[in-house]
Amino acid sequence: MRRRPVLRRYPGGVADAPKVITAEELDAMSPDQRAQVVREHIVTDLDHLPEAFRQRVETTAARLAEQLRHVTE
């Protein structure tokens, strides 16, 4: 699968794209700072996800639910 440029995924361009935290940046942080970064990047509302990503998640969830249904029958 070919990835699209960030500018196509975020309507406002790069300014709307979430900041990527590198491993080097995480290593330089205290445990409390790392925990805060993780908390800040948790999405709890599906409406805040890019539509294409949300569709992939929902498709995968439906496929896995179907597989589980066959296993438990």
Write a brief caption for the model.
The protein has 73 residues and is mostly helical. It contains 4 helices and no strands.
Q: How would you describe this structure to a colleague?
A:
This protein has 73 residues and is an all-alpha fold. It folds into two domains: 42 residues, no CATH class; 29 residues.
Give the secondary structure arrangement, pairings included.
Elements: H1 6-9, H2 23-28, H3 31-40, H4 51-72
Features:
73 residues; mainly alpha; 2 domains
The ordered string of helix (H) and strand (E) elements is HHHH
What is the rounded distance between the termini? 34 Å
Count of folded domains: 2
Number of helices: 4
Percent range of helical residues: 55-70%
Structural class: mainly alpha
Biggest β-sheet, characterized?
none
Share of β-strand residues:
under 5%
Backbone shape: elongated
Q: Low-confidence parts lasting 5 or more residues at pLDDT below 50?
A: 3-8
Radius of gyration: 17 Å
Number of strands: 0
Mean of residue pLDDT values? 80
